[in-house]
Specification:
5 strands, elongated, 42% helix, oxidoreductase activity, acting on the aldehyde or oxo group of donors, 7 helices, iron, five-stranded mixed beta sheet, alpha+beta, 2Fe-2S, 2 domains, DNA polymerase, domain 1
Length: 210
């Protein structure tokens, strides 16, 4: 009798476990499939150089990898991939960011401008022409990041955002001295050492937009 009773309890427990497993699998299936039929209506997108781009379903993709590996926009360079060299600098709504440190999904609905998007109708942006005229590059690997950073930096100056070397914080307008410019561009490294040409190019461009 004890053996029969024990066997009955084991069968009851086994059936209970199987029932719970079926319930769990049903709930998991329901959770992961609910709403998939409407997924196309909820796709996330980002604007890159004036074109709307669907974001990848993998939320781990960095903005840099989206540009280079998914969109084949290789003008934006991958240097250190740690936010230390500035080669990956792009503009988001006019503000400069390091795309290697940014997840693409962070910028859903935002407007991204890369080095490819600065030129218009096949004509170089004035700051691109200034870099050529002043030899603001050697190997050219850092140049896209330098140029995008310079555009964003000059926007910061125009808005009156101070740097670590800004003298008069209450003055409103900022004079872009050589020290001010070098401080603001210090996050963009040039391992070839073309800094004099870079500074001269940015200074010339800054004079034209005053």
């Amino acid at each position: 009798m004890r053996l029969l009773a024990g066997g009955g309890l084991r069968r009851k427990a086994h059936n209970s476990i199987n029932r719970r497993r079926r319930q769990f699998h049903f709930l998991r299936l329901t959770f992961f499939t609910t709403g998939f039929e409407d997924a196309e209506d909820h796709r996330m997108s980002i604007n890159v150089n004036g074109s709307s781009i669907d974001l990848p379903s993998d939320t781990r993709v960095s903005l840099l990898d989206l540009l280079r590996d998914h969109l084949d926009m290789v003008g934006t360079k991958k240097g250190c991939n740690q936010g230390a060299c500035g080669a990956c600098t792009v503009l988001v709504d006019g503000e400069r960011i390091l795309s290697c440190l940014a997840l693409a999904v962070q910028y859903e609905g935002r407007s991204v401008t890369t080095i490819e998007g600065l030129s218009t109708e096949g004509m170089l942006h004035p700051i691109q022409r200034a870099f050529i005229e002043h030899d603001g590059f050697q190997c050219g690997y850092c140049t896209p990041g330098q140029i995008c950073s310079a555009v964003g930096m000059l926007g910061e100056v125009k808005r009156g955002l101070p740097s670590n070397v800004t003298g008069d914080l209450a003055g409103g307008s900022i004079t872009l001295t050589r020290d001010e410019l070098c401080e603001r561009m210090s996050g963009n490294l040039c391992r070839c050492g073309a800094y004099n040409g870079i500074v001269d190019a940015i200074t010339e461009f800054a004079e034209t937009i005053k």
